[in-house]
Amino acid sequence: MDPLAKKVILFLSKNTGYIKSTDLAKELNVSTKTIYRTIKRINHDREIITSQRGLGYTIEPGSDSELTENFDDLNENKKRTYAIGVYILFNQPTGPKFFKTADKFYLSESALNKEIQKINSSIDKFKIKITRKNGHLIVIGNEIDIRQALNFFLIRKGAVSEGFTSISEIFPSINDNDRGFLITQLTLIQDELNVVLVDPYTLNIFSHLYILMGRIRSSAHASKPKKIETTDIKYDQFYETARLIIENISRYTNRTIDASEIIYLSQYLLSLRYMHSNDIQQINNAAPTTQFEKPVIDFANEIINHYPFQRIINKQHLLTDLCAHIKPMLNRLKSNLVVVNPLVDEIKDSYSSEFQQTKQIVDDYTMKEYQLKLSEDEISFITLYVVKAIEESAKTNKILLMCTTGIGTAQLLRTKLLNAIPNLNITDVISSYSYREDMAKYNAEADLIISTVAIPEQSKVPIVVVSTLLNELDLQRVKSFLNV
Predict the structure, then answer these.
(1) 166 pLDDT higher than 60
(2) Which range of residues forms the domain containing residue 30?
(3) Which of 266, 337, 407, 450 could be bridged to 332 by S-S, CB 3.0 to 4.6 A?
(4) Is 379 found in the same domain as 430?
């Protein structure tokens, strides 16, 4: 059970009577659709939350304590597994003693062995493995992969905390000086690159720097990411920013840091997504083909062209969103870097159908083009953009059709438009005379007017003038306005 499900249960249990879905959604700051899906998940095995048309939802008395106790037990088990993983990985290459680790987490020998099995199952994708050797827990693998697994465990551990909202909740053991220093480095990265970091990439880069600082403080660790080759050096803005950050960390920790860390950090910075000051204008106006390379656009179009959308979506906006994500994602694949999505489980639960359909399309494409499959973290990122496009499409433009009489020619135009663009939200068919008589009324009821007659008066609503027969040029103008 995810944190949102627990919040729904707790809220309903504290209120007598029925609560409307709209009120519940407003209280928990989510959409009503998310509320419906969450309650469906809660009621999967047996009906805990009952509903009545027109009244809303209520919870069966006594169910809340049973459910929340199970939820807490499950989360505590997950957090313990992730905490053990962090402890073992941070204490490499010497490795912590097996029985010291068991004592630290109040576990028996067999219980710790079971935890290690679970941890190994999670870190297998990073091509590392925990093994017991000479009484110690040793990780077989290289430094980069150990760090990426650490990042995964740190963020996953935070994700199972109830509704975490801050870095402090993800890294509760970090001291104030280190936290303040790392936050200033995030600000410096944004200033040097002239960007704004986008969540959850902010969390990932903070975690990356936190891990780097912890590893170089270890006297047994020389801090040399062995996968990085000097031939990979690109003396660009990302490299210069990484060099500045590494120099700052070196001074702060009073440790000499190998130059290969600069290259590794620059590759990591290149793999993140940022928001530029002109991004909103680019989304609304610019053609993505002018901003992104062909592999990026091809990947995005594969998703758009094969996803079974049930209604008209704004393909231009979705293409731009996907390209902006896929560009750094391909950099991550090239450099074997991982970004963790702390909301992956919630996305898979809340949007299970969308996630599975997106996963199928993406898996087929990446196997064909790159001979690999993306992680569920990456696919859940992509799913959110698909969901965004679907939910935005629900807010359809209200279209008013207008001609001289409002009868015959406009009805013909209506038929032609619906044949060309199914599911178009045509709210009314009126005459130009009626429109002139009460412009304020009709303007309030429409987002777009498609008319066979020009209106000389100033209208607050855009008017697209077309011919009665709706030729190809007319249709392109309408589609251009609607971004379909």
Answers:
(1) no
(2) 3-61
(3) 337
(4) no
